[in-house]
Amino acid sequence: MQFEFDPEKAEHIKRNTALTLLRLSGYGTIVQQFMKAEEFDKAFDESGDITPCLDLSKARRIQQEHKRVNVDFPVWMIDSLDKEATRLGVSRQSVIKVWLGERLQQQKV
Question: Where do the structural domains in the chain lie, given as residue ranges?
């Protein structure tokens, strides 16, 4: 993979967006430069959209990670779930998640 460092383009990106700037050092390695908090705040104040400033590749929602489980249901229950899912226009999995979530919220109270 070849990277070209264009100082003029880099300055434009640095000045007009909040992207993390990657540049080649003298030894051909990539050096990552992070923006300062003041620059981040300024980018938000100017555009309101700071998503270009963020590296979302490692973002996680706390307590929202998924774990796959297998559950066996009787056929009559699957049929009822499918009818409800069709009525609501959603998937069977969505119905199960919402109903379980509601029940678990009730149990907390």
Answer: 7-56, 75-108
